């Protein structure tokens, strides 16, 4: 049984050895000259003035999380669409309930004002 996994173990061992070799070679052969320019914060090619730390509004995170939630929910529609004919009425009803819950959630966050970008 273990012989079946031998190619996989061999492939994993080669990957680990190569990663260790690349890191070691980079450490031994790389230059280590520290300059003020290298230590400076890099912001899209523009020189930063003052503190680069600033607070990001919570609205940004809320909209990002809502986007991820609704985006991931769309992933569940694809497998359903692939086997739609096999599921027949049960698949239609279950997906209708699923989409109904999504619509209710969307209306809820819309009424709460979570999608308003002020």
- Reading off the top of the CATH hierarchy, the class is best stated as Mainly Alpha
Q: What is the share of helical residues?
A: 55-70%
The fraction of residues assigned to DSSP E strands is: under 5%
Count of discrete structural domains: 1
Structural account:
This protein is an all-alpha fold. The chain has one domain: NADH:ubiquinone/plastoquinone oxidoreductase, chain 3 (Methane Monooxygenase Hydroxylase, Chain G, domain 1), CATH 1.20.58.1610. The chain is built from 5 helices and no strands. It has helices spanning about 5-30, 35-40, 60-75, 75-80, 85-110. It is flat, with a radius of gyration of 26 Å. The N and C termini lie far apart (about 60 Å). The model has no long low-confidence stretch (mean pLDDT about 85).
What is the structure about, briefly put?
By secondary structure, the chain is mainly α. It contains five helices and no strands.
Question: How are the SSEs ordered, and which strands pair?
Answer:
Layout lengths: L5 H24 L6 H4 L18 H18 L1 H6 L1 H29 L6
Describe the structure using short key phrases.
single chain; Methane Monooxygenase Hydroxylase, Chain G, domain 1; 5 helices; flat
